[in-house]
Amino acid sequence: MEYRRLGSTGMYVSEIAYGNWITHGSQIESDAAIKCVKTAINEGITTFDTADVYAGTKAETVLGRALKGVRRESYELLTKVYFPTGNGKNDRGLSRKHIIESCNASLKRLQTDHIDLYQMHRFDFETPLEETLNAFDDLIRAGKVHYIGFSEWNASQIKAGLKIQDARGYNRFVSSQPQYSALWRVIESEIIPLSAKEGIGQIVWSPLAQGILSGKYQPGKKAPTGSRATDKARGAYMIKGWMRDEVLEAVQKLQPIAKDSGLTMSQLAIAWVLQNPHVSTAIIGASKPSQVRENAKASGVKLDPSIMKAIDAALGKIPETDAAKTQSPNPRP
């Protein structure tokens, strides 16, 4: 496993991060989830990503249990706040009330006294940005949070936040957590250039495009039993946009490229993301320890420029590049 600095900070993160978005507390049982976390640690993964909303707060609980007994200084813990964690009107969003209460609840579920990186899960159109940023700054000053970031904010929202932080002397953003893969490249034209200028690192999610880039889904065939596309709880909803024959046919063209590179399809997809020097870490999800071991091997892989061109040629016009696709709910859910 290799490691990279998170943006311009002095904190390092593993090139591969383990995330429990759809899996922990939902798709797989707790014991299996804990085995995946232990495998991640054995593979040198030190960065663990979750959020209060995942599996209705159960994902944080499972991760806290899995990391219990592991030396706290040996790993980086990332979580997020914004989406509903209850039925009340204040159980969501980025108000001071919800941020402080959610942070305290996350700390209890994760069985820790601090969060290494606390992120705004989406942009909140209903709360004054000053209120949100002030609350996050207070959490840093209280020692409950070390760094702050955001997920799926567009360029104008990032600029507005930085302007307030600089004017008020607040701690600045150090991370952006966007979706990014060979199929979803919407951050390349605006988010990455702005982030690079401002010292913000990219913590990218879904480098396998919900598993599509693993090659397991064949055009004209049913999804494999037990795969994300058959997970009616959440996975199937998230992946359905990619389950089109033209996409699956293009992805199958990557098979010989991966084989010639000595990589699996999943390793090729993750390695592609990591070729971007502005990516600090790529988040993987897994329901089996074997998947963790396979994906971890993508760390440190250097793809020749000719391979990168071959991937572009294979995918053609399929990849999404429109920066306007980076959106937050308005009003919030």
From TrEMBL:
One of its GO terms (cellular component) is cytosol. Residues 15-314 form the NADP-dependent oxidoreductase domain. GO terms for molecular function: oxidoreductase activity. InterPro entries: K_chnl_volt-dep_bsu_KCNAB-rel (IPR005399), NAD(P)_OxRdtase_dom_sf (IPR036812), NADP_OxRdtase_dom (IPR023210). Keywords: NADP, Oxidoreductase. CDD domains: Aldo_ket_red_shaker-like. Belongs to the shaker potassium channel beta subunit family. This is Unannotated protein. It comes from freshwater metagenome.
